[in-house]
Fold this sequence. Notes:
The complex is a heterodimer.
Chain A: H1 2-8, H2 10-27, H3 33-55, H4 62-92, H5 94-103, E1 109-110, H6 111-117, H7 120-133, E2 137-140, E3 143-146, H8 150-166
Antiparallel strand pairs in A: 2-3
Helix pairs in contact in A: 1-3, 2-3, 2-4, 3-4
Chain B: H1 2-24, H2 30-52, H3 63-88, H4 92-102, E1 106-107, H5 108-115, H6 119-130, E2 134-137, E3 140-143, H7 145-160
Antiparallel strand pairs in B: 2-3
Helix pairs in contact in B: 1-2, 1-3, 2-3
Amino acid sequence: xxxxxxxxxxxxxxxxxxxxxxxxxxxxxxxxxxxxxxxxxxxxxxxxxxxxxxxxxxxxxxxxxxxxxxxxxxxxxxxxxxxxxxxxxxxxxxxxxxxxxxxxxxxxxxxxxxxxxxxxxxxxxxxxxxxxxxxxxxxxxxxxxxxxxxxxxxxxxxxxxxxxxxxxxxxxxxx
Amino acid sequence: xxxxxxxxxxxxxxxxxxxxxxxxxxxxxxxxxxxxxxxxxxxxxxxxxxxxxxxxxxxxxxxxxxxxxxxxxxxxxxxxxxxxxxxxxxxxxxxxxxxxxxxxxxxxxxxxxxxxxxxxxxxxxxxxxxxxxxxxxxxxxxxxxxxxxxxxxxxxxxxxxxxxxxx
Lengths: 175, 167
């Protein structure tokens, strides 16, 4: 009975480990955010797999075992993706940046003040620095070229999903 | 295996409802609409199954398995909803990568010309206003109640997880 519940909550335990490892890596070991994310993700996955392996019912059929591992594995991946997306939003999202700027302003901000705090130039520079740092873009002799294709593949996948969801979709929005 | 199949079935149903609904009208607040769809559709499906007397899958599952199914469903639904914000509007970073892929050898000036005009900032402010996260009062933007909650949540997370300044 206890094993069944431990199995159920294995992905949550993994996610908790992931979060704690991230905090530890950033605050104690001062690792870069990207490295802290990978450490947290891997340790969380390891703990999830460990909890599953230690509590998996011995009498289960091969089909049930496969189903159990896939369900719990996918659950951990989905939770870890949610955590990554949450952190990533904090670091890259324009909308979150604007919300946080407005939170720290006492009387709100005009459009010009918002643009002044975060100019279009800064918007572009930050992205170019991140892309160069991650190796996705390379600046050679004053000209940019792709350093890696992975973001391009991601963009193509999203375009396919966009086509599936919005093809034939209504153009008008309610309200 | 029953949990996995039931979970996939439960996820497929709201996705189909979304596809059908989006062909009739696209909600103004798409993320909120998705949240409503992903909460209501499985509840309605389970209710309909009970009423028409179809074999009840849930009755064959233990309490722990039902919770496992719920965690699987909620985490995968949230993953899709998070991903949807990138589907709804192309991320600026991906737009830059896509632009460079189409125009190899582009210079810094080309990128500034394309992305340095502030169009992205304007469109994001419009999105925030449309979602009622911010409201405009006499020419100044202020946080709405939902925007206030979100901003505080992300501000606290920024401190807790030691993140770099965003944007």
